[in-house]
Amino acid sequence: MRDVSFRIAPGERVLLLGASGSGKSTLLHGLAGVLGGDEEGESEGELLVDGAVAASRRGLSGLVLQDPDSQVILARVGDDVAFGCENLGVPREEIWPRVGEALDRVGLDVPLDRPTKALSGGQKQRLALAGAIAMRPGLVLLDEPTANLDPDGVAEVRAAVAAMLDAYGTTLVVVEHRVEVWLPLVTRVIVLGEGGVLADGSPDAVLRYRGAELAAGGVWVPGVPPRHPSPPSSPPGATLLSTRDLAVARVKGSPVAAGIDLDVRAGAALALTGPNGAGKSTLGLALAGLAAPAGGTIEASEELAAGAGHTPIRWTSRQLLTRIGTVFQDPEHQLLGRTVRGELEVGPRALGLDEPEIERRVDELLVRLRLDRLARANPYTLSGGEKRRLTVAAALATAPRVLVLDEPTFGQDARTWAELVAILARLRDDGSAIVAITHDRDVVTALHADEFRMPGAGT
Predict the structure, then answer these.
(1) What average pLDDT does range 123-136 have in this prediction?
(2) 5: which DSSP letter?
(3) What are 54-88's pLDDT values in tens digits?
(4) Cα dihedral sign for 230, 240, 387, 149?
(5) Is 52 exposed, middle or buried (0-12, 13-18, 19+ CB in 10 A)?
(6) How many CB atoms are located within 10 Å of the residue 224 CB?
(7) Spatial CB neighbours of 128, under 8 Å, sequence gap ≥ 6
(8) Domains of the chain
(9) Alpha helices in 75-194 (DSSP H)
């Protein structure tokens, strides 16, 4: 991000837009005063909050990050929400009423002593927002706060933010690719790009009169639908994975979903949908051979197993590489390489491929997923959307027959969304099976996916 200049007045409600990698998350970190200083990067110009350097005003800002796991601090829900208030020196008798109110506002209806490790990704996102709301900051910074939430959760979180703004006159800066969620709430839109601030004004002025230009650059613009790939070129093939009376659990002994019967078929896409906490991600890990069933069975066909046995949880990591690839909900949970190129080389090297083949696969994936300019970058310095594309590319590098993806379009602008979905559709048409865990209805439609809806939130 370079040559960015603007001023946000107290009480303004700003939607920050831009293509993936344009610096939106970096700007929020800067406003929160947590960029890390010169030791962790370079900066020029001024970044002031309330007239002073942002790092000296940290107590004024509440930041909710893209990755809710990185904000879970304590082992129990109530303690985690109270943590920020305690650090601000809020009197003890005020803290717990604030905690209860914040949890109610974000719709996280769980006991205060619920272990935070037992929460789903979407529930952790609500937890992080509750912690920020409880602090009652003057400036709230939200980085894609609804990206992994079900539709009810999106409505609840937006309502919670609206109530906070109305009650306390808080200033808001929110980053979100799907802008229609926040349009009823915001009063201003700022669009970042390579040339600094590309647009700045009222939502109507920016999106109506600059909409076509912004959409061409990858910004999600209401009324401009994303490009969808062609329908499947042939009917689904043989069943590669099947489950019968399957139960799955995040915490041993406490199943979050049970009685699951489904088939994963070659040349087809399957979408796992349903409310937060219903067990979608846990089911995905079980299908991927990374989590043992809590009951019932998961069986691989002979075509998929190819001599490795019919129980994926018993396969070695090397056996999984060409059979079932996995993309976790949190990209950082699977980053291994020191550079983007090195990350894409991990799987092919583990398979023992020769150097020319490794180079061919990696070069192709770098270009297809718009990561070629970042080939030498440290993966942890990428934006959330770029990390997501990197983990998808790393899974594709070993050409697995089944690909399980948890929220595959998280953090993508309209252009990279369309390109990523087109790649998945091509894999489907080449005979691979795609399993997508998603709240993105456009993904279900674009991939012509069969839908398996989880029955309800876990207990």
Answers:
(1) 89
(2) -
(3) 988 887 889 998 777 778 999 999 999 999 999 98
(4) positive
(5) exposed
(6) 14
(7) 64, 65, 68, 71, 72
(8) 13-216 (3.40.50.300), 239-453 (3.40.50.300)
(9) 77-87, 92-106, 121-135, 151-168
